[in-house]
């Protein structure tokens, strides 16, 4: 960022731009008071963690690392429980183990949690039985119950989100620092019901192979390989509610500019990616790495302008384009975007989100995603990037460590009628543990051939 452009930007600059997807709070004074309280609270992440992630994303941009970004579609305050957090971490660690083994490169692990409490919606209101109320926009804003009290935006939720994010981050850091991710003990990562998975034998064989390799390396070195006892782990969320993001945007000693210290890796969704809008204005001024969701309705010109605004100096690791086209549209729309970005000289990290373009509803109206569509989009993405002389540097997934039934297909071939068994999401369907691990194995297989 040039000094001139930096001087023109402040954390509240977005307020001069059109801001969509922002809730309408009935009490403006209460919102202002809450934001001021939030501004005085400690940050959730540090600037040196943000800088370390940016360096790793720069390596993924060059094909030397692979990014695994995953977690809940929308976190809930009620799910801030140690078993649920541990299971979420376990599935990402196990997936990264599979990817490291299959792709023979280091994996950047990024959780969609510790802040993913807000969701964009296609309409401001919802009507049931003749009653119209505000839509549920995530626990950062309101509650899912269809009552006036629950759906009224509550500014106090901003403070609750900060507290629950801090609790989540503290627990994750404690687990990792305590050796939870130690490759010497991969059995720590097992989930109770994984033994019933059709993938259990293949996964155990992989773990045993890695364990043997690690012991061999330590025998040669004559000492323990301590680097394998912990991993780097980062958080991400959609930078949607700008009052919250602004309050946690800080300057730090001995480092120029402003950092969003609510998360390591914020992203802009398609609904808020207007180049003249408030979200792009906010994100252009922070020093974090930034992601932008890119879909089939976005023109080459639109994407190129986003690149120019968000990363005018072509800083390595700064900008990620997360394409979410859908299995049936990716072949038509992605190649021209890749070629346009490359021709313009923009250096970006490309990541595939195979979830959001493949959402559909069953005959009974239940929202779901089909595993075969998800796998198809990822497979096509690798092929298209290779054909265009580009690099697919990661995947962005909505998943959970729980035994839910929200997406159909996979190794157990879940059908539409199976969804009712454990459909728990409040917004979008997620891959369950088995489906997520199977997808990681498929990705590893693609990159071995």
UniProtKB/TrEMBL annotation:
Pfam families in the record: DAHP_synth_2
Cofactor note: Binds 1 divalent cation per subunit. The enzyme is active with manganese, cobalt or cadmium ions.
UniProt cross-references to SUPFAM superfamilies, sorted A to Z: Aldolase
UniProt entry keywords in alphabetical sequence: Cadmium, Cobalt, Manganese, Transferase
Listed cofactors: Mn(2+); Co(2+); Cd(2+)
InterPro entries the record matches: Aldolase_TIM (IPR013785), DAHP_synth_2 (IPR002480)
Positions that bind Mn(2+): 73, 356, 398, 428
Gene Ontology terms for molecular function: 3-deoxy-7-phosphoheptulonate synthase activity
Binding-site positions, phosphoenolpyruvate: 112, 293, 324
Protein EC: 2.5.1.54
Highest taxon in the source lineage: Bacteria
Example of a GO biological process term: aromatic amino acid family biosynthetic process
Catalytic activity: D-erythrose 4-phosphate + phosphoenolpyruvate + H2O = 7-phospho-2-dehydro-3-deoxy-D-arabino-heptonate + phosphate
Gene3D superfamilies the record matches: Aldolase class I (3.20.20.70)
Top enzyme category: transferase
Protein family (similarity comment): Belongs to the class-II DAHP synthase family.
Alphabetical list of NCBIfam families matching this protein: DAHP_synth_II
Protein name: Phospho-2-dehydro-3-deoxyheptonate aldolase
Species per Swiss-Prot/TrEMBL record: Stenotrophobium rhamnosiphilum
């Amino acid at each position: 960022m040039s000094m001139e452009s930096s001087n023109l930007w402040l954390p509240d600059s977005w307020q001069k731009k059109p801001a969509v997807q922002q809730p309408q709070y009935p009490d403006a004074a209460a919102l202002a008071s809450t934001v001021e309280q939030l501004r005085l609270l400690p940050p959730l992440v540090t600037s040196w963690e943000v800088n370390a992630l940016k360096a790793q994303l720069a390596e993924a941009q060059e094909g030397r690392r692979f990014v695994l970004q995953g977690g809940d579609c929308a976190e809930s305050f009620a799910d801030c429980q140690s078993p649920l957090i541990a299971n979420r971490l376990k599935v990402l660690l196990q997936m990264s183990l599979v990817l490291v083994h299959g792709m023979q490169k280091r994996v950047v692990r990024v959780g969609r949690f510790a802040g993913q409490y807000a969701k964009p919606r296609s309409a401001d209101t919802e009507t049931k039985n003749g009653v119209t109320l505000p839509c549920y926009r995530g626990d950062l804003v309101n509650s899912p119950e269809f009552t006036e009290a629950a759906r009224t935006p509550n500014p106090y939720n901003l403070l609750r989100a900060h507290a629950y994010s801090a609790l989540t981050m503290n627990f994750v850091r404690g687990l990792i620092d305590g050796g939870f991710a130690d490759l010497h003990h991969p059995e720590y990562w097992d989930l109770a019901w994984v033994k019933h998975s059709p993938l259990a034998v293949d996964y155990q064989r992989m773990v045993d192979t890695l364990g043997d390799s690690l012991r061999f390396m330590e025998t040669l070195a004559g000492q323990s390989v301590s680097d394998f006892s912990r991993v780097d782990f980062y958080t991400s969320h959609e930078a949607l509610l700008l009052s919250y993001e602004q309050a946690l945007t800080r300057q730090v000693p001995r480092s120029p500019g402003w950092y969003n210290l609510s998360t390591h890796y914020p992203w802009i969704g398609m609904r808020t990616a207007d180049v003249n809008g408030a979200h792009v204005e906010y994100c252009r001024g922070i020093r974090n790495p930034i992601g932008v969701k890119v879909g089939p309705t976005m023109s080459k010109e639109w994407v190129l302008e986003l690149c120019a605004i968000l990363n005018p100096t072509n800083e390595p690791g700064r900008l990620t384009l997360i394409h979410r086209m859908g299995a049936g549209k990716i072949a038509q729309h992605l190649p021209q975007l890749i070629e346009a970005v490359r021709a313009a000289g923009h250096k970006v990290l490309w990541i595939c989100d195979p979830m959001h373009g493949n959402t559909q509803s069953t005959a009974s109206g239940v929202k779901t995603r089909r595993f075969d569509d998800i796998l198809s989009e990822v497979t096509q993405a690798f092929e298209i990037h290779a054909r265009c002389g580009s690099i697919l540097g990661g995947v962005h997934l909505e998943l959970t460590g729980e035994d839910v039934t929200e997406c159909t297909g996979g190794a157990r071939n879940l059908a539409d009628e199976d969804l009712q068994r454990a459909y728990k999401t409040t917004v979008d369907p997620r891959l369950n543990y088995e489906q997520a691990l199977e997808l990681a194995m498929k990705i590893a297989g693609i990159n071995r051939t």
